[in-house]
Amino acid sequence: ILGALLASAVLAEFAARMWIRRFGGYYVLPPGVRMRLRPDPDTFPSMEKFVRFDVNADGERAGAVPRAEGLYRILVAGGSQPEGYLLDQSTSWPGRLQTLLRTREYQARLSASSVHVGSIARSGVGAEALDLIFRRVLGRYPRLQLIIILVGASDVLRWLEAGAPTTLPPPVQVDDTFRCHPEVAFGLKPSRLAIVEVLRRLRHRWLRPIQFQDRACKWIGRARTMRANAKEMRTTVPDPSPMLRHFDTHFRHAIEKAKAHADRVLVIRQPWF
């Protein structure tokens, strides 16, 4: 009996791994995740006190996609600015955009029965990561009416974090780009088993538990203190041409992929504060 149970467990583990490899899919945000955040009040005294961050079944920060004829569907992609991690679902600009476009006036101008704005933006995503995201994600979408892109600051930030090198940065990794993907490295620890991963994904999709996080992003306060106490201030950087060429290449590739899957592609320039 013990031998049969062990063999069944091994077979179930390999079956789960095969299922994830074949049907897992690439998602920037894990489908079904629901978070409730309380930004650290000492670090963000003027921010909202309570933040909803909900991800739908398509891996977008948004509500469920309406199943209706005449749907005008918009996909937002980029880095931390469109992600709006510490902004409530309806306060982030993709959420506000959906609220605006769902009014009768704008739905009539779009000749749409409904409008859906879903965001797959994530902090740290630069042009290369965006290129990878579109390569892995857009194929499962129907024809979109609009894709909005806001990216660029993360490329500069990553370059500065690496010490402003004159060579190309190492390629972006799947683990750093997608929080849910089929290229998971499994192991023998319980937390690394494929069966556990399948159950975790099904739990998020079906049960949709709420994850609470208090004093969210408190680390930013410590980062401010480190910057204020810095002993060395650098006012010049090496020639950024290699970084800019790298950005240009992947940015163009990302736009071409977006144009192949949407009627319109809108590139929003980085805001300057």
User: Major sheet: size, sense and barrel closure?
Assistant: 4 strands, parallel
Radius of gyration: 21 Å
Give the averaged pLDDT, no decimals: 95
The oligomeric state of the chains shown is single chain
Reconstruct the topology from this structure.
Layout: H1 2-23, E1 34-39, E2 51-54, E3 71-78, H2 80-83, H3 93-101, H4 104-109, E4 114-119, H5 127-137, E5 144-150, H6 153-161, H7 174-177, H8 194-207, E6 210-216, H9 219-228, H10 241-261, E7 262-267
Parallel strand pairs: 1-6, 3-4, 3-5, 5-7
Antiparallel strand pairs: 1-2
Helix pairs in contact: 1-8, 5-10
List keywords for this structure.
16% strand, 3-stranded mixed sheet, 10 helices, 4-stranded parallel sheet, 273 residues
Describe this structure as you would to a colleague:
With 273 residues, this protein is an alpha/beta fold. The protein is built from ten helices and seven strands. Helix 1 crosses helix 8 and helix 5 runs parallel beside helix 10. It is globular and about 70 Å long. The termini are far apart.
What's the gist of this structure?
The chain has 273 residues and is an alpha/beta fold. It has helices spanning 2-23, 80-83, 93-101, 104-109, 127-137, 153-161, 174-177, 194-207, 219-228, 241-261; strands at 34-39, 51-54, 71-78, 114-119, 144-150, 210-216, 262-267.
